[in-house]
Amino acid sequence: MTGTEAHDSYGEKPDPDDHNAPVGPQKDTPPPENAPGGPSDPEPPKPSSSRTPDEPPRIPMPRTSVEDTGLPLPEPAPAPLFLEHRVLKSLLGAWALAACSPEETAAVEDHLGTCGACADEALRLRDAVGLLHPPESLDLDPTLRTRVLESCLDRRPPRIPVPEWATPYDAETARLDALLQDIGDAEWHAPVRLRWFDGDEHTSRRTTVAGVIAHLLTVDGLVALTLGLDDPLEAQANTPTPEARTEAFWTTSHFPPTRSVRTPWREQAHNLVRTVAFAGGGSGRLPVSYGAFELPLRDSMLDRAFETWVHAGDIAEAVDYPYEPPSPRHLHAMIDLGARMLPTALAARRQAGLATPGQTRHLVPAGTPGRSLRLEIEGLGGGEWLIPLDSPGALPSPDHEVAHIALDGVEFCQLAAGHVPPEEAAAGQVGDREAIRDVLFAAASLSRM
User: Fold this and answer.
1) What are phi and psi of 399, to 5 degrees?
2) Quick one: three-class SS letters along the chain?
3) Scanning 54, 165, 371, 393, which has the fewest C-beta atoms within 10 Å of its C-beta?
4) Which residue has the higher pLDDT, 68 or 44?
5) Contact of 336 with 385, CB cutoff 8 Å
6) Which of these, 398, 387, 382, 397, lies nearest to 440 by C-alpha position?
C-alpha cells in the first residue's frame, strides 16, 4: 500500500451526509508511519494551554460512582403497603391515636381520600381522642396560679381588692376545686374518714368524698349567714354547731351526696370572697357564731381556709393523689390563729377538769403577767409564740417562761386538726411536763368535725 492510499484511507474526513460512512480509523487499517502515535513517531507534543474562541470546550471527566467511594449506599424507598379494606378499617383507631407506623399511616391516609365511610369514622375517632384529655390538670406547678396573680396585680392593682385575711381561704378553695376537677365520677364515692379529737380521745366519722364537700358547704354556710347570704342547709339543725349542721344535711338528703355538690360549694366560696371584698377590711370584726363559741370574721375565714386544706388532704389521701401544704405565708397565718386560740382552749379544758390547775387557787387576773410556754414552730410558716398558761387574759412573759416546745409547722397543724396524737407531736420539749402536756392536748382539742 502506498502512502497516498494510506492517507486517503485514514486521513480523509467522511462525508457528513453519508450516515453509513465509517468514522475514524477502521479496525483493519493500520495507522501510517508518520501519523501521530505511530511506531516511528516520538511522544506527541503537549497541547497548548491557550484555547481559541472557536475551539469547542473540553469534555469533563466522568463522575465517580458511589459504589466506588466506599460510602454507605442510600436506603431504598420503602414500597407502599397495599392493604385490604378490612385491615385499613381496623387501623383507624390506632391512626387516630397516632400509633401507626409511617407506612401504615400513609396507607390509611391514602385510603381515607377514596373511602367516604372510613373518612367519617376516622373523623369521629379523632374527635373522641380529644375528649380523653381533661381541660384542667393538677400536674401544673402548684405555685403557678399565685405567681400569675401576683404578676398581674403588680401591673394593675384590683379596684376591689380581697382583704389579706381572706386570701388564704380564696387560695385553698381554688386548690381543692382543682383537685375535684381532676378526679373521676367513681372517686366521688371513695370512702373518707373524718378524724378529730374529743376530750381525751380520738374519734372519727366515715363518709365519702362527696360527703366531705357537703360538710364544707354546710360549715361555710355559717359565714354566709353572717354576711347575709343564703343558707345552703334547707332543714334547720337542732344546734348551729358545725357537727349538727353536717349531720342534718346528710340526714335530710334523699340520696347520698354525689359530684353535684361541687357546684353549690364552689359558688358559695366565690360569693364569700366576693362579698368580703365589697364589704372591705372593716367587716373582719363581724362575729361568726359556731354555736359553742364565736370568732371574728377575719379569724373565721382563716379557720375555714385551715379546714379546707385539712379536708382536701383527706380527699387526696382517699383517692391516692399528691397534695402540698399551703404557701408559707398562709400557713403562718393559720398557725398564728391556732396559737392565739390555745389560751382559751386551755382554760376550757381546765374548767372541764381535763387539765391540771394552775399554781394559784384562782386564775391570774387579766393584764397580769403569768406563767408562759414558748411555742417554737420550725419549717414552713415558722415563728415563736408565748402562750399564757394561767388565764386567757394574762400577759405572756418571757420572765415567767416555764416550758418550751418545738414543733414542725405542718405537724402543729396536723395536731390542731386531730390527725396526730398529742403524745407523738412534740419534736422537742423542755421544762414543766404538766404544762407541756396541757398545751399539746389543748392544741388537739381545737379540732372538730
Assistant:
1) -75, -20
2) CCHHHHHHHHCCCCCCCCCCCCCCCCCCCCCCCCCCCCCCCCCCCCCCCCCCCCCCCCCCCCCCCHHHCCCCCCCCCCCCCCCCHHHHHHCHHHHHCCCCCHHHHHHHHHHHCCCHHHHHHHHHHHHHHHCCCCCCCCCCCCCHHHHHHHHHHHHCCCCCCCCHHHHHHHHHHHHHHHHHHCCCCHHHHCEEEEEEEECCEEEEEEEEHHHHHHHHHHHHHHHHHHCCCCCCCCCCCCCCCHHHHHHHHHHHCCCCCCHHHHHHHHHHHHHHHHHHHHHCHHHHHCEEECCCCEEEHHHHHHHHHHHHHHHHHHHHHHCCCCCCCCCHHHHHHHHHHHHHHHHHHHHHHHHCCCCCCCCCCCCCCCCCEEEEEEEEEECCCCEEEEEECCCCCCEEEEEEEEEEEEEEHHHHHHHHCCCCCHHHCCCEEEECHHHHHHHHHHHHCCCCC
3) 54
4) 68
5) yes
6) 387
Cα gap 155→85, rounded to integer Å = 60
Give the predicted TM-score (pTM) of the model.
Answer: 0.66
Structure-block grid coordinates of residue 393: 387574759
Q: Which of 46-55, 196-205, 308-317, 360-369 has the highest mean pLDDT?
A: 308-317
Give the type of residue at 407: L
Q: Which of 8-22, 253-267, 296-310 has the highest mean pLDDT?
A: 296-310
Q: In whole angstroms, what is the distance from residue 4 CA to residue 31 CA?
A: 13
> According to the per-residue pLDDT averaged within each range, which of 19-33, 147-161, 373-387 is highest?
373-387
